[in-house]
Amino acid sequence: MIKETRTVNYDYSTVDPTLLEVFENPFPANADGVIHIEAPEFTSLCPKTGLPDFANIVIDYLPDKLCLESKSYKIYLLSYRQHGEFHEGCVTRIFNDLTAAMKPKWIKVEGRFSPRGGISFWPTVSTSDDVTPGGITFLTSDHVENFMKQTDSPDDGSHKGS
User: What pLDDT does 131 receive?
Assistant: First the structure.
């Protein structure tokens, strides 16, 4: 038996925040759940050259009443394919659109763009520093690097192995 399929047409000529869909937060009311999303196939256009820019868009957020529906988010990100904007502008627009759609307690959006002209740009925008209103600390690459520096120090004999 052949299953009937439905054709859906999307307009990718402009960034469209109305594509974003949300659903009720399933985390218990007495606990904060953190959601981490990575979209490694993001593309937009350089506004100067028209050449494609590639990025992994990383989102961490602490939902309030609503969570982001993943398929709608993917389709929303596809609407950037023909959009010319600097990296910082794309990340800020994504932050603003997600904040408007979900109204999270806390959100951080980072664009890990592939190097252009030998220079990497990783713009980040958030509603606060690394510490969220829920008291959760997110480990950044700086945290990990500092930890590794501390553990790479010579053994002074104070640490006993098993």
Answer: 47
pLDDT mean over 4-29:
83
CATH number assigned to the domain comprising residue 95: 3.30.1130.10
46 lies in a domain? yes
DSSP state of 64: S
* 115-136 pLDDT per residue, tens: 988 888 899 999 975 544 445 5
- Asked if residue 10 is part of any domain, the answer here is no
> Among the options 53, 60, 90, 97, which is catalytic?
53
CA–CA distance from 53 to each of 38, 41, 43, 87, 151 (Å)? 17, 10, 5, 8, 37
| 67 in catalytic set | no
The total domain count for the chain is: 1
Q: Tell me if residue 60 is catalytic.
A: no
The helix/strand/coil state of 116 is strand
Catalytic residue among 16, 46, 64, 130: 46
Instruction: Give the domain range for residue 86.
Output: 17-151
CA-wise closest residue to 84 among 19, 11, 13:
13
